[in-house]
Structures are given as C-alpha cells and as structure tokens.
Amino acid sequence: MRQQSESSVSLYGGSSTAVGRATAIRAGRVPVAVYGLGKMGLPLATVFAEATGNTVGVDVDPAVVESVSDGDCPVTGEPGLPGAIRRVVAEGSLVATTEGDAAADGATVHVIIVPTLVEAGSPELTALRAAVSAVASGLDPGDLVCIESTVPPGTCEGVVVPQLVEESDCERGEFGVAFCPERTASGRALRDVRGAYPKVVGGVDTESTRAAASLYDVVTDNEVHTVADATTAECVKVFEGVYRDVNIALANELATLAEELGVDVYEAIETANAQPYCDLHRPGAGVGGHCIPYYPYFLIDTCDTGTPLLRRARRINDAMPGYTVGKLSEGLRERGVALSEATVAVLGFAYRPGVDETRESPGVAIASLLRDAGADVVGVDPVVDLDTIDVRPATMEALPDFDLDGLVLATAHDEFDDIDWNQFERAVVVDGRNALDESVGPGRTVRVVGKGEDDRFR
Hints:
single chain, alpha/beta, Rossmann fold, N-(1-d-carboxylethyl)-l-norvaline Dehydrogenase, domain 2, 8-stranded mixed β-sheet, 6-stranded parallel β-sheet, 14 helices, 16 strands, disordered C terminus
C-alpha cells in the first residue's frame, strides 16, 4: 500500500493556488482512500485512481479486495468498469485492502461511500460510523473527509464531525469535512462519476468547501456546483430522490383514476408533459432500487416537522405491486380461475431493466403476494440469479412448459420483446410497465396498469 510521503499535499488549509492543488492531485501527491468498494464505491475508486494515480480502496469483504487486487471486477452490469479496473490496478494507481486504519494513515483525502440502509422505517448509519472510525484512526491536520454516501440532512454536522473529533487527535477546524453526494445510477456508474451531472459540494466550513471543490474539479469533467454548507448539499441529494418518489406516486394515483375514467393515462401524461411547466413521471407496478424507496425516510424519521405528503407517496408506491396482483386476480376470476389455483409467471425481478439488483424490486413483491395468495409462481429474469428468489425458476424458452394461467410483466427487460405470446393463448397478461405492443397478438386481452381499456389488442 502506498503511504503518505513528505511530498504529500493537504488540500484543507493549504496555501497553494488552485493550479498548484490541481497539479499536486494529478501528480499523485494527494493520497486518496475510498472506503466502500460496492456498486457505487468501486467505480468511484476507479475514477479517483485514474485522476490521481494514488488511490487505496477499502472494503470489509476480503473476497472483494482479493478480486480487485487481482485486477478483476466483482461488480457486474457496469460497462467499461472491468477494463478500467485492470488498467488502474496494473499501473499501481489503485490498491485494495481490508485495512481501513492503514489506508487512513496513508491518505490526506478520505472518501466514504458506504450504504445507508433503512430498518423499520429509520435510516441506519452503522456502516458510515464504522468508516468514520477508520478515518479517525489516521486523521491528521489538513486532511479532507468527503462523504458521498446519501445520508439524512444534518449527518455531517451532527455525526461525522463530532465522531472525528472524539476519536482522533484533531480538533474541529484542523480538518475538513464536505458532503459531495454520488449522483450515479446502476448500469452507467463510470459515465456518471466521470461527469454526467454537475458535482455538488458543500462543506461544514468555507475551507472544506474550497478544498473539496478543488479535488472534484480534477476528478469530474463536469462543473462543480458549490452550495452554502454540508447540510444543504445533503438536502440536495435527498430532495432529488424524494421528488421522484412523490412524482411517481402522483402518476400512480392518476393511473388508478384513469382506469376508472376509461382513458389511457400514458397518453394523457405524454400530452400534458408537452406543456413545459408539467413533468409527470410514469406510473407502474412499483418503485424499487436502493435510492427512491429509502430517501423519504431520511426526512420522515429524522425531522420533527410533519411529512404527510412523503408518507402518503410511500404508501401509494408500496401498494402498486398489490394493485398489479389485483388486476391479475380480476382477470382470472372472469375466466373462472381462482388465484389460489393459478400458475403465474412473473417476468422481471431486477428493479429496473438490465440491472442485476433486486432491492425493493416490484417483481419480488409481486411474487411474494402471489405466493401468499396460494398461486404457483414461476420466475424469469435475464440478469438476476433466480436462486435468490423464492420462485420456480424458468427461462423464456421453457415458459410454455408450465401451462400458465397468467403472466405479469414487472420489469421491461429488452429480452422480453422476443417472447412469442401465441404460446400463452389462455393466459391473462398483466403489463405493469406499459411495455407490450401489438406483438402480444390480436384477440388477446391485456390488462395494463393505468389504462381503462383492457382489450386494446383485440
């Protein structure tokens, strides 16, 4: 592991010019440690290695560290990442370790990107606190700590800074802390980290903001957008996710109204969005992933001010898998088949197309509800390991062998475009994503979330 040397440069509190800081970063004289080598952390560490030539990646999982150390990529579904890791590891620009204390001792910049989970409706900061402890063990005056993990607003001021002061030999004002949120989507991480969006930076003091801005000005190809303080930056990231959750909840509620009114909600939304002041999102079978379903709780649980809109939006979106199953049950009843006696295929368990991730996946929720109702559930997904899902796994080619009573499209993978729907003439089809077209076949009744007209292909 490369250690901090006498030529190492501190970004916080230094007197060098902006040009001098940028030159030092590119020359590897600003040693960086990235804590967390998961789906978001590994691409981030890779980009830091490309920019600085002197980055250590820290992870608690020895298998991840061994894989990265061998130049392999333990993260799947990220275009360009395997090759980029091979390059930076071969060059010595990226070194991986499980020894967080040693990495902290050798770094002047510490970047934390560990997950913030939600348990029983409350954000869980255990992983963040553990990473902060590792940083504190090697924290020196002049060091800069950047938090990229999405956290409840107030975390940098209320958790990170006090813990660093308590567990290190430094006082506040001797080191910098800034919130610099990742704005990254699975499946496009390298592109996003390198600069698909402006980089938001907010420090706990003016010098922290300046130091972090100088760092990310080198790392990202996009502009660096500084805000008033760390709490504002934390709000920016959470507000982005909350906006999407509330907007989707509105779309989902409009979808149920559209069905009652006998209209196509997608046509109505598309036309309404032609007005520049309207930006309605799309409804569907549910909201999944590691972001949108969780971020509202970063405000709901941590603020004294009431959040009835956020709570209502969460209830609406959480109810959509059940609403989708209800449409299937209704269609089966019309054909004299009880849900408890039906064999149903769920198509898609990834939370979005092409991404091998099932956290809060609507498809998983739909399968669970079907099992609870007594149905025999068959599962198909081209990117997810179905051994991790409680269904009878199948391939698209094998689906006709199951004598299906129903099919539910939960995730609109491109691979599902190739399904020969003529093989399932008696099955009720529920489209939870408005993704099917006339290829389903004339004469077939398709129930679509958000469409009042069920038999559009008749």
